[in-house]
Amino acid sequence: MTTGEPGQQRTDRSPWNWLLVLPIVLPLLTFLFNADEPRLLGFPLFYWLQIAFIAVGVTCTTIVYRMTK
User: Fold this and answer.
1) Sequence-distant contacts of 15-22: CB under 8 A, at least 24 apart
2) Spatial contact of 64 and 19, defined as CB atoms under 8 Å apart
3) Paired strand residues for 9
4) CA 38 – CA 31 distance, rounded (Å)
5) Spacing of C-alpha 36 from chain mean position
6) Is 42 helix (H, G, I), strand (E, B) or coil?
7) Residue pLDDT, tens place only, 6-33
8) How far apart are CA 23 and CA 26, in angstroms?
């Protein structure tokens, strides 16, 4: 892959890309949310963690984008 400038190579190999593993692996750790308690506003922990996983994914993606831009 090249950038718009001649003679300059663009590489996608950045250590920041490893941060994108976190939103993939985190929801696979079922022991984190394999419980009915605690509840927050009547909703079990599972639902709150799903929203937290989305926030983690967006945050990691934003950080990687800005650091590798």
Assistant:
1) 16/63, 16/64, 16/67, 16/68, 17/64, 17/68, 19/60, 19/63, 19/64, 20/60, 20/61, 20/64, 22/56, 22/60
2) yes
3) 2
4) 14
5) 25
6) coil
7) 666 766 789 999 999 999 999 999 998 8
8) 5
Q: How confident is the model at residue 66 (pLDDT cuts 50, 70, 90)?
A: very high
The pLDDT of residue 6 is 64
Does the predicted model carry a pTM greater than 0.70? Answer: yes
CA angle 60, 62, 23 (to 5 degrees): 25
CB-CB contact of 20 with 64 (8 Å): yes
Place of tokens 């920041």: 16
CA distance 10 to 8: 7
